[in-house]
């Protein structure tokens, strides 16, 4: 068995607003970014979005750390 012992379908992460570990719902969004120097070219970046199930605070983080 893996480490899926949560009954909640999500992850427990630290929430800055709550100041403690809370259950988070994690999803991945693809965002299209345009860069000033490459106007004609759009890059699609996957973002990891986690939403605190306690206070509803959302935080997103780019998955490609380039
Ligand atoms: Zn929170």
Automatic annotation (TrEMBL):
Residues 1-66 form the DUF7835 domain. Pfam families: DUF7835. Residues 19-31 have a biased composition (Polar residues). Residues 1-48 are annotated as: Disordered. This is DUF7835 domain-containing protein. It comes from Natronoarchaeum philippinense.
């Amino acid at each position: 068995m893996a480490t899926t012992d949560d009954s909640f379908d999500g992850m427990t992460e630290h929430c800055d607003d709550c100041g403690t570990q809370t259950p988070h719902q994690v999803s991945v969004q693809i965002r299209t970014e345009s860069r000033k120097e490459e106007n004609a070219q759009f890059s699609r970046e996957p973002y990891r979005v986690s939403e605190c199930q306690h206070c509803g605070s959302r935080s997103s983080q780019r998955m490609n750390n380039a």
